From TrEMBL:
Keywords: Ligase. Belongs to the ATP-dependent AMP-binding enzyme family. SUPFAM superfamilies: Acetyl-CoA synthetase-like. Residues 421-496 form the AMP-binding enzyme C-terminal domain. One of its GO terms (molecular function) is acid-thiol ligase activity. Residues 10-370 form the AMP-dependent synthetase/ligase domain. This is 4-chlorobenzoate--CoA ligase. PROSITE patterns: AMP_BINDING.
């Protein structure tokens, strides 16, 4: 299999004059971008980076970040991207854990970099303005001097990048992925989303997240255009979709929600978008139906996967069976095992909720966590990756993802999935967003509580929502016993509901004025 450096050269050789990347006023063809990438690779080499070294990047989705990603692929350096919102202790941990020798950052992360002791011993490359004395080298200087020569310095079995998991419990875990893992995942992404040559995508999912990386690589495979968007803003996103003729969107459900909710949505021309894809979290049925009506897409893909194994399953017609994650992807084999299963052979019955596991022999699957034997022992068993997600196969062989093992609510001895309840409540016309969690209860062990953000201008109350749930086919024992109205549902930077914050009471209750 080709490495990623040679993969990019394919596009340069096929379509040197084709537009490749857009970032504000910067518009580069594959030929021009290829020259910049080789120049940056040469600059990194002059700073002493060698094959197999780690480079920590703390950047938003800007052309420098996309260029840096590709430059590392040519040089054989392991790009190790980190959330640009990272705190000093997170920068400190990930620098020490990865052993990175060079750190690239921009103004938004300057304070965090300055607060890391380990960072002071690294080469610190500053991008753009506002990096002050924290930087020791300017990114622009990497373009000076000789470009990398002699062709790509990595092979398919070399490590391409290392993503850090979100670390919602304990320290984040490094997920090293080889060039062949990344290329196989990108090829599958192209095939499963039916991307055609020259597609244009909105590059807003962060490049420290597997969804963002996949969008970047997939566009190169098809000589497409990556439209950089440093951070999500609904008005700006709608403007870029219209101005750049974006043809496909691959976002988390939260961002789709914000697009539809923005006042500019009705006045913007979004007709260029023909393909929608989502991942990162289940999409509530109500939102799915609203997107179908708003975009009328040719393809509406529910992609279920992870940093460790990019694709688990694919549903190419999410609107046909809301909630279905479809069937195993091109490079995947899946099973659902009983919740008490110790290994991969304790297979759950059809319709029985259990833990979803994936075959580690798949082309997209990683080899194991970075220096974390404890995490490997927990997640890698008998040649299978135990995802920590719960779900079941229905009688048609389609996978339904119901939540996380840790999120399962046990009330009165019954296992209750929050996702089932959220899907029902999301269809109520006065519900904007909803998240369900189990709160400690003396009698039931846990009671089901729904945290609801009301649609603007509505005043739906708990009695009305309870009556609505009673009118559906939601089982009685799953009905929320309490409703809490909130200003916002707490989420991670990539849009995942943070139920642990709801359980801990770390949320903002709705004010009287917000309920009017």
């Amino acid at each position: 299999m080709l490495d990623l450096g040679r993969t990019f050269l394919q596009s340069v050789e096929r379509s040197p004059q084709a537009l490749a990347v857009v970032d504000g006023n910067t518009r580069l063809t594959y030929g021009d971008w290829g020259e910049r990438i080789l120049a940056v690779a040469g600059g990194l080499e002059r700073l002493g980076l060698r094959h197999g070294d780690h480079l920590l990047a703390i950047l938003q989705n800007r052309v420098e970040m996309a260029t840096l990603h590709w430059a590392c692929q040519f040089l054989g350096v392991i790009i190790t991207p980190l959330n640009w919102r990272a705190k000093p202790d997170e920068v400190e941990y990930c620098l020490a854990d990865s052993g990175a020798r060079v750190l690239v950052f921009e103004a938004v992360a300057a304070e965090a970099v300055a607060g890391s002791q380990t960072a002071q011993g690294c080469v610190r490359i500053g991008v753009g303005e506002g990096v002050g004395d924290v930087a020791t080298v300017a990114f622009a200087s990497l373009y000076d001097g000789p470009a990398l020569t002699g062709g790509p310095g990595a092979g398919a079995d070399d490590v391409s990048l290392m993503l850090y998991t979100s670390g919602t419990t304990g320290k984040p875990k490094g997920v090293p992925r080889r060039h062949r893992h990344e290329r196989a995942a990108a090829l599958a992404h192209v095939a499963q989303n039916l991307y055609r040559s020259g597609e244009r995508t909105l590059g807003v999912m962060p490049l420290y997240h597997t969804m963002g990386v996949r969008s970047l690589l997939a566009m190169a495979l098809i000589d497409g255009v990556f439209v950089c968007m440093p951070r999500f803003d609904a008005a700006r996103a709608l403007s870029l979709i219209e101005a750049e003729g974006v043809t496909n969107l691959y976002l988390v459900p939260t961002l789709y929600h914000d697009l539809l909710a923005h006042a500019d949505f009705a006045t913007r021309d979004i007709s260029s978008v023909r393909k929608l894809g989502f991942a990162g979290a289940p999409m509530p049925d109500g939102l799915l139906l609203r997107l179908e009506q708003a975009f009328r897409p040719e393809l509406f893909v529910n992609h279920y996967g992870s940093s460790e194994v990019y694709t688990f399953s694919i549903n190419q017609d999410a609107r046909a069976r809301p909630g279905s994650a479809g069937r195993a992807g091109i490079n995947a084999r899946l099973r659902v095992v009983r919740l008490d299963a110790e290994g991969p052979d304790g297979i759950a019955a059809v319709g029985e909720e259990g833990q979803i596991i994936a075959d580690l022999a798949g082309d997209e699957a990683f080899d194991g966590y970075w220096k974390r034997a404890d995490a490997d022992a927990k997640a890698l068993r008998g040649g299978w990756y135990f995802t920590g997600d719960t779900g079941y196969f229905d009688e048609r062989g389609e996978l339904f993802v119901t939540g996380r093992v840790d999120d399962m609510i046990i009330s009165g001895g019954e296992n209750i999935s929050p996702v089932d309840i959220e899907s029902v409540l999301s269809l109520h016309p006065d519900v904007d967003e909803v998240a369900v969690a189990g709160l400690e209860d003396e009698r039931w062990g846990q009671r089901v509580v729904a945290f609801v953000r009301r649609r603007s201008g509505t005043a739906v109350d708990a009695d009305a929502l309870d009556a609505y749930c009673r009118s559906t086919d939601l089982a009685n024992f799953k009905r929320p016993r309490e409703y809490v109205f909130v200003a916002e549902v707490p989420k991670s930077p990539v849009g995942k509901i943070l139920r642990r914050k709801l359980v801990a009471g770390e949320y903002e209750a709705e004010t009287a004025s917000e309920s009017l």
